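Quick one, tokens below. Sequence please?
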């Protein structure tokens, strides 16, 4: 079977990952889609600020998308383990493409209203909750276990490259026409849809007989039992529990950054293009960090690396408030993101030793809920802080929250002792413990 040859390489040497056509299709589709996401990551708040003039409302819309993602995450994970994963991926891309195309049409006609923007945010957030676990399962189904670290590093590089190009391009396109970023995002979903179809993602876990038996058992036990099984699996790992609690606070603070940065740049005389350039610092630092992820990841075990990365990120967020002009935040944001990819890769490899294949969808969803439970408050918090304390004051407050979270987390011996097991367990998973800092936590695309 071709799936087996691409994952295991038979009895011979594994072919290079670049010759794995299924992974390459998934990677190219995600690259296009990620670029579209970063365009609208900037364009959404700019559009809401242009329509309403309220930073708080801009934060509310961001919170709506994240909330929809979280509300659907647990049932979505259970359904991913029960249903045809290929069809889930295709359906999610169709829904997201149509939603963004409808918003672009509304903006183009000049009849866009706040409720339409909120509706699109909710629909795409719900679709994200299905696409993320299904794509995580697809990656592990088409990549050999020994090549997952390399695949994860390429995933990190892809996301950060999009973060580098997307914000300035989004600001530029928004300046040309408010509908352009949303139209381009719809087009990228279409490209991703074509790539998913061509990737021929396996419909079920790799071993068909075991998958059928597990699916039959899940139908008998019910969805609630499915979710509780995954939650119980996570709860039994003390180090992961401590990491989840830390990630919960870190993601809350990190997702409060966007609006304060936009408000501060505008207050210092920067335009939409300047905002895009500043936010591109995240992508540039992450892209460099992806190339250094192997070296950085060997410096510390995962738990201590998490403390070091988030602690440095907190200092960098506070440094963005220094009064050095509208473009100054590029420097600290760039430095803050250099170590983040290494942390993501190391934590994914850690979970690659543990997560059973048939439980992938549910574990992804439980992780999403556990680490993102407070994230919907992030954009709202950032918007309120920016409106009443100004952009610089809000950034100092967010950086202080991250620093306080690091101080409390450092007390936990379970987190400090979190490390990669000495021997491999079951097949790898693509579940991130900590979402990428400083970006809206859209499920893996």
């Amino acid at each position: 079977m071709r799936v087996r040859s691409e994952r295991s390489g038979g009895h011979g040497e594994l072919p290079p990952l670049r010759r794995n056509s299924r992974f390459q299709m998934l990677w190219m589709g995600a690259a296009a889609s990620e670029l579209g996401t970063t365009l609208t990551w900037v364009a959404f708040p700019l559009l809401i600020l242009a329509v309403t003039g309220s930073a708080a409302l801009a934060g509310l819309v961001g919170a709506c998308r994240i909330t929809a993602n979280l509300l659907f995450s647990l049932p979505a994970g259970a359904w991913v383990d029960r249903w045809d994963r290929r069809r889930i991926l295709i359906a999610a891309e169709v829904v997201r493409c149509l939603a963004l195309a409808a918003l672009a049409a509304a903006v183009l006609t000049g009849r866009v209203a706040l409720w339409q923007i909120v509706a699109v945010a909710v629909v795409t957030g719900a679709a994200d909750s299905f696409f993320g676990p299904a794509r995580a399962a697809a990656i592990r189904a088409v990549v050999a276990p020994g090549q997952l670290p390399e695949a994860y590093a390429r995933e990190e590089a892809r996301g950060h490259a999009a973060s580098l190009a997307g914000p300035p391009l989004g600001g530029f396109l928004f300046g040309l026409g408010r509908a352009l970023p949303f139209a381009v995002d719809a087009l990228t979903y279409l490209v991703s849809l074509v790539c998913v179809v061509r990737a021929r993602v396996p419909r079920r876990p790799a071993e068909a007989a075991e998958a059928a038996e597990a699916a039959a058992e899940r139908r008998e036990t019910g969805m609630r039992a499915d979710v509780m099984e995954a939650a119980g699996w996570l709860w039994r790992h003390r180090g992961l529990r401590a990491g989840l609690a830390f990630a919960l606070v870190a993601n809350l603070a990190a997702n409060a950054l966007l609006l304060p940065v936009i408000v501060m740049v505008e207050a210092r005389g920067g335009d939409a293009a300047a905002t895009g350039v500043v936010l591109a610092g995240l992508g540039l630092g992450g892209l460099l960090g992806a190339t250094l992820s192997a070296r950085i990841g060997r410096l510390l075990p995962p738990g201590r690396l998490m403390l070091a990365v988030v602690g440095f990120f907190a200092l960098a967020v506070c440094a963005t408030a220094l009064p050095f002009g509208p473009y100054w935040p590029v420097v600290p944001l760039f430095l803050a993101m250099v170590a983040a990819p290494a942390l993501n890769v190391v934590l994914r490899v850690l979970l690659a030793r543990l997560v059973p294949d048939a439980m992938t969808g549910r574990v992804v969803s439980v992780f999403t809920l556990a680490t993102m439970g407070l994230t919907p408050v992030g954009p709202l918090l950032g918007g309120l802080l920016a409106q009443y304390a100004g952009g610089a004051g809000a950034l100092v407050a967010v950086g202080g929250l991250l620093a306080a979270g690091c101080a409390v987390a450092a007390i936990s011996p379970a987190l400090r002792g979190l490390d990669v097991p000495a021997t491999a367990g079951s097949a790898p998973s693509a579940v991130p413990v900590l979402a990428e800092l400083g970006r809206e936590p859209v499920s893996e695309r």
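The mean pLDDT is 76. The longest helix spans residues 377-409.
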